[in-house]
């Protein structure tokens, strides 16, 4: 077992989640239980052997658990534990810091629409979310869609959306990244058409309140 061998809280944390791919697996599971094949797709680039090894390590450390879904699904899923869920703010903070490093999306850069949730959790003003419920559809590059639900402080991707959202946000990934790292103001993006909202004024105001800069 690899360890830094240091009596330091940061070193101990990195002993558990510092291996390559580990936090990306956590990123996937923060959105809910996933089958092995879902994780292979979401953590694109990881090999089956490495994924299996990382899951074993995370299970041994109490970050992830496995269970079998009831019939008719009857398939095994991995899910985040209560201990693992404590990494949520850590992942959000890293995502927020990493926004300044994104730059333009390159032709070989993989992207999964549900990854948007990591960036949004980094921007969410949790002090404004008590009792708030908001359903937002994002229309991204190449007509990619993702639905996000904010319910009383919890932000999740809705993989099988039904019904109409409260708000539709039209923006490219580059625009959202610029908004996230503070290099672009929302008012300027709206003025030049890079950011567009479809929804009621109340929904737009709620969205602006939830995701306003709070550095």
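^ Assign residues to that structure.
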């Amino acid at each position: 077992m690899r360890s830094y061998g240091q009596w330091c809280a940061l070193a101990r944390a990195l002993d558990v989640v510092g291996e390559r791919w580990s936090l990306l697996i956590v990123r996937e599971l923060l959105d809910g239980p996933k089958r092995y094949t879902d994780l292979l797709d979401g953590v694109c680039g990881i090999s089956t052997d490495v994924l299996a090894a990382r899951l074993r390590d995370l299970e041994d450390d109490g970050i992830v658990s496995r269970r079998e879904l009831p019939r008719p699904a009857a398939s095994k899923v991995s899910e985040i534990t209560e201990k693992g869920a404590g990494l949520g703010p850590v992942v959000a903070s890293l995502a927020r810091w990493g926004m300044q490093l994104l730059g333009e999306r390159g032709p070989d850069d993989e992207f999964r629409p549900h990854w948007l949730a990591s960036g949004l959790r980094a921007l969410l003003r949790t002090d404004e979310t008590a009792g708030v419920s908001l359903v937002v559809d994002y229309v991204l590059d190449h007509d990619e869609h993702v639905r996000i639900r904010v319910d009383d402080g919890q932000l999740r991707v809705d993989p099988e959306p039904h019904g109409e959202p409260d708000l539709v946000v039209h923006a490219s990934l580059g625009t959202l990244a610029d908004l996230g790292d503070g290099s672009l103001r929302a008012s300027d993006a709206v003025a030049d058409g890079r950011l567009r909202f479809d929804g009621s004024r109340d929904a737009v105001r709620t969205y602006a309140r939830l995701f306003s800069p709070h550095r």
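Residues 115-210 form a domain with the Nonspecific Lipid-transfer Protein; Chain A fold (CATH 3.30.1050.10).
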